[in-house]
Amino acid sequence: MASNILLSLLLLAAASPAALAGFDVTQMLADKSQYGTFLKLLTQTKVAEEMNRLKTVSLLVLPDKAVKPIASLPADKQRLAVANHVLLKYFDPIQLGEMKDRTAMLPTLLSNSDKRLGVVNYTKANDGQMYFGAPGAACVAKLVKVVAARPYAVSIMEVSKAILPPALAGTGGPGRLPKVKPKSSNDEATAKSAPAPTAALK
Which residues belong to the signal peptide in this entry (predicted)? Predict the structure, then answer.
């Protein structure tokens, strides 16, 4: 009897999410050539290594035809952009579809560098389609399909477009610092000699 109980406990432990947590995202994508460029970015930026250290994670992967907005960024921004496609919890279409609200803000790996920008907006349209978007940008990255998954530990889902905060994409918006022209000595002299503004006439 005791041995049967012990065996049952061992089987339950083996099937638990914690036991399934070990994974290698590069191996999960290795035989899927349509994601070759994104896989290369995952490796070069070392985001894959960070993912593999997490217990639960979801990757929003881009096919080669849609990865150019990230691949064309400078190296330092590439890492941030790729990290923004890594959700810090396990999600699959079923879990997303069963959310109480049709919209949600999902933390990403980018939150380790920037908590304000390190989220992805999720929304479920009236027709059931699911979309993602960065803060300050439209939710237009459509969830296409599940590429690979290990339930409750890691999922890899294809999206149609890159999810880039405007600050990374270089399109302005939240997080982008405006360029300020430094004052010269001539500007300061002009400001001092300029007459004070007069009050408006009533």
Answer: 1-21
Find the CATH number of the domain harbouring 24: 2.30.180.10
Q: Does residue 10 form part of some domain?
A: no
pLDDT digits (tens, 9 = 90+) for 150-166: 999 999 999 999 999 89
How many independent structural domains does the chain possess?
1
pLDDT tens column, 46-87: 999 999 999 999 999 999 999 999 999 999 899 999 999 999
Q: Nearest 5°: phi and psi at 97?
A: -70, -25
Decide if pLDDT at 178 tops 70: no
The answer to pTM > 0.70 is yes
Q: Which domain holds residue 80?
A: 19-168
Decide if 136 contacts 175 (C-beta within 8 A): yes
- Whether 6 is covered by a domain: the verdict is no
Q: Which of 144, 42, 151 is nearest to 92 (CA)?
A: 151
CA angle 171, 34, 19 (to 5 degrees): 95
In a domain, 178, yes or no: no
Residue 9 lies in a domain: no
